[in-house]
Design goal:
This protein is of the alpha/beta class. It has two domains: about 20-60 and about 160-220 and about 315-355, FAD/NAD(P)-binding domain; about 115-155 and about 225-315, 2-Layer Sandwich (D-Amino Acid Oxidase, Chain A, domain 2), CATH 3.30.9. The chain contains eight helices and 18 strands. The strands form three sheets. Strands 1, 2, 8, 9, 10, 11, 17 and 18 form an eight-stranded mixed β-sheet that branches. The longest helix is centred in the N-terminal third of the chain and has 21 residues, at about 85-105. It binds flavin-adenine dinucleotide (FAD). Flavin-adenine dinucleotide binds near residues 28, 52 and 213.
Length: about 350
């Protein structure tokens, strides 16, 4: 069993690599479909190519948490990036949430904005969360801390594959082409040559929205592929948690859908060195931890889905958004450090605005 809980978007987008494109976007996840949204908003033409189907990557395999900020707590972000930058990032991710939901224009994507709960796993995390609540309120953001749980009331949740499907549905006919595997990119002064299994495209510019998979095309880009695993249960008769819940410094997370299904993910900190690469099969070792959490929560429902996906991590903990060094007209919007649902839509806008 290696099937994500989220159904694959129903619309199909068969097609071929175009011979020419003003802008060629590679990758049909939340980033690629967000880039297409912003291109269209700017009146620019683009073609998106995806080697499998839209939402086949991490975007159709994640927990659907819409959290403000980076993966680290706000206090840690202040230490890493400075107060002003941490504040800017928090504001940017709040904007990402609102703008992405506005962009799907009322299509059903399972959006709820009931807040998130971040549970302290011990004293060290409690100190960091208490300080985060203090810093957040000083910086004008809403957060409450009760000695054990930090609640961010503006956080929320979605069905991530449905968001990708909703953004894709708004693109002009023929602008998304599934089943096109890009094998190489050659940047020249005036155009970028893109190769795919014998076909060739001459593009004005190319944007890689390939997150964890980026080093497969451009090995010089420093993005580490790190796996994450999840399970989902059948609808559970009782309510077991009210908010998307995050704990152990973000390494463990769970939520319950309004229809009762429980989704649990994480525990890669228990097999940190093994949970790397692109294999989408779940492992017994991690799944046993997820099963144990389902039991601790008091769930009666059986597990229906188990799966894994691959996230892209950067050295700085921040996404890489902008031109690729040494490759004229090739851009990158990737490296979301396990928080692409919270970052990608607004990162894509930043990139398109910079073209
Ligand atoms: C289990 C799990 C739970 C997570 N939970 C959350 C969460 O709750 N909240 C959150 O914000 N984030 C979460 N994430 C992270 C989030 O899923 C990612 O950050 C986000 O989906 C990245 O989106 P993307 O579009 O950049 O990449 P992807 O969705 O991975 O899309 C990249 C696409 O590029 C395509 N591609 C790659 N190479 C090529 C090529 N050569 N030619 C053509 N196409 C190519 C792939 O097929 C893929 O569809 C989680 C991730 C996982 C795995």
């Amino acid at each position: 069993m290696s099937t994500p809980y989220w159904p694959r978007p129903t619309d199909g987008y068969p097609g071929l690599l175009p011979e020419r494109a003003d802008v060629l976007v590679i990758g049909g996840g939340i980033t690629g479909t967000s880039l297409m949204h912003h291109l269209r908003a700017r009146g620019m033409d683009g073609v998106l190519v995806e080697r499998a189907h839209i939402a086949a990557g991490a975007s159709g395999r994640n927990a659907g948490f819409l959290l403000a900020g980076v993966a680290d707590s706000y206090a840690e972000a202040v230490l890493s990036y400075g107060r002003a930058r941490a504040r800017e990032i928090w504001g940017m991710t709040l904007l990402n949430h609102a703008a992405m939901i506005e962009a799907v224009a009322g299509q059903p994507v399972g959006h709820r904005r009931l807040g998130s709960a971040i549970l302290a796993s011990g004293e060290e995390e409690a100190e960091s969360l208490a300080e985060s609540a203090q810093l957040l309120s000083e910086d004008g953001f809403q957060a409450t801390w009760d000695g054990q749980t930090l609640v961010n009331p503006l956080d929320g949740e979605v069905d991530p594959a449905a968001v990708v499907g909703a953004l894709a549905r708004q693109t002009p006919r023929g602008a998304i082409r599934e089943g096109v595997n890009v094998t190489a990119i050659e940047a020249h002064a005036n155009e970028v040559l893109v190769h795919s299994d014998g076909a060739e495209c001459r593009a004005g510019c190319v944007i890689l929205a390939t997150n964890a998979y980026t080093p497969q095309l451009l090995p010089q880009v420093e993005i580490q592929p790190r796996r994450a695993q999840m399970l989902a249960s059948a609808p559970n008769p009782g309510r077991l948690c009210d908010h998307p819940t995050y704990s152990h410094f973000g390494y463990r997370y769970w939520r319950q859908l309004p229809t009762g299904e429980v989704l649990i993910g994480g525990w890669r900190d228990t097999a940190y060195e093994a949970e790397v690469g692109y294999d989408q099969r779940p492992t017994d070792a991690i799944q046993a931890h997820l099963d144990a959490q389902l039991k601790r929560m008091g769930a009666e429902a059986k597990v229906t889905h188990r799966w894994a996906g691959t996230m892209g991590f950067t050295e700085s903990g921040l996404p890489l958004v902008g031109p690729v060094d040494g490759l004229p007209n090739v851009y990158l919007c990737a490296g979301f450090n396990g928080h692409g649902m919270g970052f990608a839509f607004i990162s894509a806008k930043t990139l398109i605005d910079s073209l």
